[in-house]
């Protein structure tokens, strides 16, 4: 199934299994001498059980550990690259190409009519969404999915983050997801993201009326070679389209949204006002 998440170890050959095997090999074949799980846990400031779990391909992999492993074993980014592959694999197959493009993008423009985009979600907000969408999921499954989503935000903190333009419908800030505390934290996070020099957050007010992109969410991703692709998503489908005519039409529609939406400063004020009502 496309949206299956494992509670036990993953299939042989999966990115998570490769990560675990690479970590075990690095420990046991270390030039300076074999490193025990306990010793590695101490160097990485984590627990022995976490090291054991990672080596046995049991998710999740804490997002800060791959860089530490590369430092400890002087592996020149191998664990970070394996971790990136693992993150992509954590998403349903229909979303994986989007994740790969997103990780390489130099610019991302996104319209969301119903929810805070995944790149700006807080963990409690993401958990509330996953719980609502999968009422029978275990806590472990919810945690794994939420951590995979939040890990996407690492690209916003790297040395050269992509230019990010986000337009959300006013409904996104009015709709209570997870309760007042969760929404207050999420709105505060939106405000914080909006202060970044590379990020613009705008709210499209209800008074705007109809527009071309009312049917669903859309992203435009620009890769380092200048290629632009359009990503559209609905409940059970996701489509990536690089047809030049489609890209031009969707880019034009997005330009109309940014021109119609409240400016960033006014958008931030609307978000603050909504926070005060919670």
Automatic annotation (TrEMBL):
PROSITE patterns, sorted: HTH_CROC1 (PS50943)
Coiled coil region boundaries: none
Superkingdom per UniProt: Bacteria
Signal peptide: none
Pfam families (alphabetical): DUF5753 (PF19054), HTH_31 (PF13560)
InterPro entries linked: Cro/C1-type_HTH, DUF5753, Lambda_DNA-bd_dom_sf
Annotated region (Disordered), positions in chain: 1-24
GO function term, MF aspect, one: DNA binding
Residue ranges of domain HTH cro/C1-type in the record: 23-56
Protein name per the record: XRE family transcriptional regulator
